[in-house]
UniProtKB/TrEMBL annotation:
Domain spans labelled IrrE N-terminal-like: 59-155
Protein name stated in the entry: IrrE N-terminal-like domain-containing protein
Domain of life: Bacteria
Length: 174
C-alpha cells in the first residue's frame, strides 16, 4: 500500500514529527539538491535530473506560490522514490497537465500525486484537522498545500472507507 510506504519514508527521514511536513528537508536528507528556477517551463513544474555520478538534482519552477511548490516538490519526490531511485541515469520532466487526471492515462503521474498527498497530508494530521472541524481552506492553510489537494485527499479517504462510492470523484491541481 502506497500510504504505508510513504509513512515509512517519512519516519526514515524524520518528517512525520512535524506538521506541516517539510518536503525540502526530506530532499536534503535524501541528498537531493533542489534548485528554484525562473526558466520558462511552459507545460512543466519541475525536472528531475540524475547525473551519472549518482547526484540527483530537482529543478522546481519558481513561478508558483509556496503551497504549490511544496506539493510539486513532494510530487517529484514521489517520482524519485517510486520510479527513479533504482536507475543510474534518468531525466524526468513532470508536466503540470498530467496531474491527477486519470483519463490522461499517466499512472506514474497519478501515483506521484498520491505520494505527495500522503506525504503532505498525513492521516494523523488530517484527522486532527477534521476533529477541529476545519474547512478545506483552513486545512490547506494549516498544512501548506493547495486546497484542491486537500479535496482530493478527502475524496481518496471517502473511497477507501466506502469502496462503492462514486468513482468519478477526482481531485485536480488548481
Amino acid at each position: 500500500m502506497l500510504e504505508s510506504k510513504v509513512k515509512a519514508l517519512s519516519l526514515h527521514y524524520g518528517a512525520q514529527a512535524h506538521v506541516p511536513v517539510d518536503p525540502f528537508l526530506i530532499a536534503s536528507k535524501a541528498h537531493i539538491t533542489v534548485y528554484h528556477t525562473d526558466c520558462e517551463f511552459s507545460d512543466r513544474f519541475g525536472i528531475i535530473r540524475t547525473k551519472n555520478e549518482g547526484q540527483t538534482l530537482f529543478y522546481l519552477a519558481s513561478n508558483w506560490d509556496q503551497a504549490h511548490q511544496r506539493f510539486f516538490l513532494a510530487h517529484l519526490l514521489g517520482h524519485y522514490f517510486l520510479h527513479l531511485n533504482q536507475e543510474q541515469h534518468a531525466d524526468r520532466y513532470c508536466r503540470i497537465r498530467y496531474n491527477s487526471d486519470p483519463s490522461a492515462g499517466y499512472p506514474e503521474e497519478q501515483e506521484a500525486d498520491e505520494f505527495a498527498r500522503f506525504l503532505l497530508i498525513p492521516s494523523h494530521a488530517l484527522s486532527d484537522c477534521l476533529n477541529q472541524r476545519l474547512s478545506v481552506e483552513e486545512i490547506a492553510t494549516h498544512l501548506m498545500v493547495p486546497s484542491a489537494q486537500v479535496k482530493a485527499r478527502l475524496n481518496e479517504l471517502k473511497r477507501a472507507q466506502n469502496p462503492s462510492a462514486d468513482p468519478s470523484i477526482r481531485g485536480q491541481v488548481s
